[in-house]
Design brief:
Two copies of one chain form a homodimer. Chain A is mainly alpha-helical. Chain A has two domains: 46 residues, Orthogonal Bundle (Arc Repressor Mutant, subunit A), CATH 1.10.10.60; 139 residues, Tetracycline Repressor, domain 2 (Orthogonal Bundle). In chain A, 74% of the residues lie in helices and 0% in strands. The longest helix of chain A has 27 residues. Chain A is elongated. The first copy, chain A, starts with a helix and ends in a 6-residue tail after the last helix. At the A-B interface, helix 8 and helix 9 of A face helix 8 and helix 9 of B.
C-alpha cells in the first residue's frame, strides 16, 4: 500500500470512528487498531489527533473550493453553472458523509490556524455560489435576493448529510438536479420583475 | 422558583453545556453545579442524563409539531401557511439554538423509545410541510415536486442553527420571510406548466 493510500485509509477510519463515537470518545490507539496500522505507521502520517480532525474537516471542502472554481470557469452561464455546482456538491456530500458530519459536530475542537483555515474555505465556497447568483442578477435572469439567501440555499445541501442514504434509490446527482431546480426557480425573476 | 421553572433552567443549562462540550463530555454533577441546584433538586426533575437529552431534543420539535398543526388550521391557503410556518420555524430555531445543535449532534445517543419518539416528531413536522405543498399542487398554485424536495427545503431552515447569530442584524422572522419567499417561488408553477 502506497503512503498516500495509507494516509487516506487512516483518515477514513478516523472519520467513521469520530462520526460514531464523537471526537472526544476516540483515542489515537483505537484509530491505529481499526485501520490495521502500527503506531509507527500512524505517527508517520499524523502529528496528533487534532491533525487528523483537520485533515477530515478540510479535505472535502478544499475539493469543493477547487472544483467550484473549475466549474465556474467551465460554465459562464449562471443557470448552467448552478446545475453543475449542485450535482457536484451532492456527489461530494454523498461520498464524504462521515467527514461532513464530523466537521459539523467537531469543527469547534479545531484550534488556531486549523480552525481559521477550515472556516475560510467554507466562506470561499459560499462566495462561489454568491458570485454565480450576482452574475445572474447582472444578466437579468435572477432577481436580487437578500445576502442571507445563499446561506439558506447551501444549507439545503449540507443538511442532507443527516438524512442522505449512501446507497439510496436516488443518485446524489439526481438529488442535485431536484435541488438545483428548486434553487434556480427560487432565484428566477417573475413576469413583472 | 417554581418546579417547572427549575426544570426549564436545568434543561437550558444542560443544553448549553452539551452544545459546548458534547454529551459525553458533561456529567450530571457539572449540570447541577452550573444550574445552582443540589443533587436532590436535580434528581427530582430528571431520571438520568439520557432523560435530560431526551427533554432537550424533544421540547422544540414537540412545540413545532403542535404549533404547526395550529398554523395549518389557521391558514387554509398553502402560500399563507408556508409564510406562517416559515416565520414560526425560524423563531423556534433562534430561541433553541443550543437545543437544536445538541439534537443534531447527539440524537443517536438516545436509545429505544426515546430515540423513536424524537424521530417520529421530526417526521410529523415534515409531514405538515409536505401536506401544505400537496394542497398547493391540488389547488394548482404549486407544481409537483420530487418527495425529496421537502427535506431540502426544511434543511435550509434547520441548517441555520450553525450560522444564526442570536442577536444578529436580521430578526428570525425577517430571515423566515426571505426563506419563505425562496420556498414559495421554488414551488410555484411557471407560465407553461
Amino acid at each position: 500500500m502506497k503512503q498516500t493510500e495509507q494516509a487516506k485509509k487512516i483518515t477514513k477510519v478516523a472519520a467513521t470512528l469520530f462520526a460514531k463515537k464523537g471526537y472526544n470518545g476516540v483515542g489515537v490507539a483505537e484509530i491505529g487498531a481499526a485501520s490495521g496500522f502500527g503506531r509507527g505507521t500512524l505517527y508517520h502520517h499524523i502529528e496528533s489527533k487534532e491533525d487528523l480532525l483537520h485533515e477530515i474537516a478540510s479535505h472535502y471542502i478544499s475539493d469543493l473550493v477547487q472544483s467550484g472554481h473549475s466549474i465556474a470557469r467551465e460554465y459562464p452561464d449562471p443557470i448552467q453553472r448552478l446545475r453543475a455546482l449542485s450535482r457536484h456538491l451532492m456527489a461530494v456530500i454523498s461520498s464524504n458523509l462521515a467527514e461532513i458530519v464530523v466537521c459539523f459536530r467537531e469543527v469547534q475542537s479545531l484550534t488556531g490556524s486549523r480552525h481559521y483555515n477550515v472556516m475560510c474555505m467554507h466562506a470561499e465556497y459560499q462566495q462561489i455560489w454568491s458570485k454565480t447568483i450576482e452574475e445572474g442578477v447582472q444578466q437579468n435572469v435572477f432577481r436580487e435576493v437578500d445576502k442571507i439567501a445563499v446561506k439558506g440555499l447551501l444549507g439545503m445541501y449540507f443538511y442532507s448529510c443527516l438524512w442522505l442514504k449512501p446507497y439510496g434509490l436516488q443518485s446524489p446527482e439526481d438529488i442535485g438536479d431536484v435541488f438545483s431546480d428548486l434553487v434556480i426557480r427560487s432565484l428566477s425573476k417573475g413576469l413583472n420583475e
